[in-house]
Amino acid sequence: MLRVEHLQVGDLPPLTFEVADGECLAVEGPSGVGKTRLLRAIADLEPASGQVFLDGAERNEMPAPDWRTHVRYCGAEPAWWTDTARPVFPQVARLERLLGSVGLDASVLDRPLAVLSTGERQRLALVRALIDEPKALLLDEPTTALDPQSAALVEELIKFHILSGGTAMLVSHDPSQIERLAHARLLLPKTAEVAPTGEHAA
User: Which domains does the chain have, with CATH numbers?
Assistant: First the structure.
């Protein structure tokens, strides 16, 4: 379970909420309100007061890199620090399976990142985020650069993460995507009241 207590991010009021194992929480609000900053703060990529717990362990109880192996942020415009994606990925059996699940061939790992499409880089970033099986996945516009077919593949991979007992938080401009993936919504900048949503509502 991912639990946030009195987290103060930017100009937002202190936020308290939780995301249970096997659930996805959508974060909604007007542009610029702080949705991305909230996800980054939970991943310990942005300074914020308050506490964040994963399965009872608080983020300040471990080094930030260790925390981020369990709580993984996947940005809308992912950064890369190598010429190709190959050096980023461990040689694990599930790599080709993950690539195939989002419609990518393993050869994409050896092509220069600069010549890949935005959508290819975005799908590669999701595979990078999932390759070592983090418990919590923080998704910032995960399909914004994708065509409908590729977006559907990405959504299926996200659903698999959730159904496998992981937790997820989702920022998306697509209301129908939120209906398909989210179990509840966190509305910003209001108080951290979590409201059931879509087909998952009781």
Answer: 2-200 (3.40.50.300)
